[in-house]
Give the backbone structure.
Amino acid sequence: MESITPRQREIVALARAQGRVNVEDLAARYEVSAQTIRKDLNQLCDQRIMSRVHGGAVVASGVENLAYEARRFIAREEKAAIGQAAAALIPNDASLFINIGTTTEEVARALSDHHGLLVITNNLHVATLLYPHENIEVIVAGGPVRRSDGGVIGAAAVDLIRQFKVDYAVIGTSAIDEEGALLDFDYREVRVSQAIIENARQCLLVADSTKFERSAPVRIGHLRDVDVFVTDRLGPPPLRELCRSEGISVVETETLNGATLHAESES
């Protein structure tokens, strides 16, 4: 970061603290034109310090994920809509896994009115959201707790997951590339997610469209491992074609416009 300006350095610091920065907000903050801010962001992106997203930018992904609070900030409204859409696909009296992630937490939040659910999770935030509801039974995987986000990771968590065969898996991911690979940062977390996919009869992937603009080094699996993909907006055309060719049902919350939620098959 030696070659960046003091303003650009501040922009990076803001993005790390907030999760993302917005062009118009930065222009007002620094009393410069939106074009000047776009130039700043483009220079930061050219140096792979940041990555552009619609209307602004986020700190570039590399080998380390963004902080939990920053991830909660990114695409907050989109994640809430995804959570509601995914929860609408899960019937009462179902068993399910829910893995680590801010979007999967929104699914858990939207499940609070369900009854007869058995939820197995390695996400302490999911457990905290659901355990007070007397009609939902919660089982938490054991093992080391990742202090950064309350995720339970490691071999003990994998062993517990493998004791079950559930109706649904609700999984998140840190990034999705154009070839359909689902990517994450922590190989220990990935092992739990893989066990979750393998031991569910149906897999729901929940991920907002910023995940198409990010990268991560560890492979969870592939979109073809997923039965339903719930997102705000499907990404590049190759991904839409991939979903169609693999028979993956897609729910795009931007197109629902308040209508009854349903999975639109792309097959």
Observations:
- Confidence is low (pLDDT under 50) at residues 258-267.
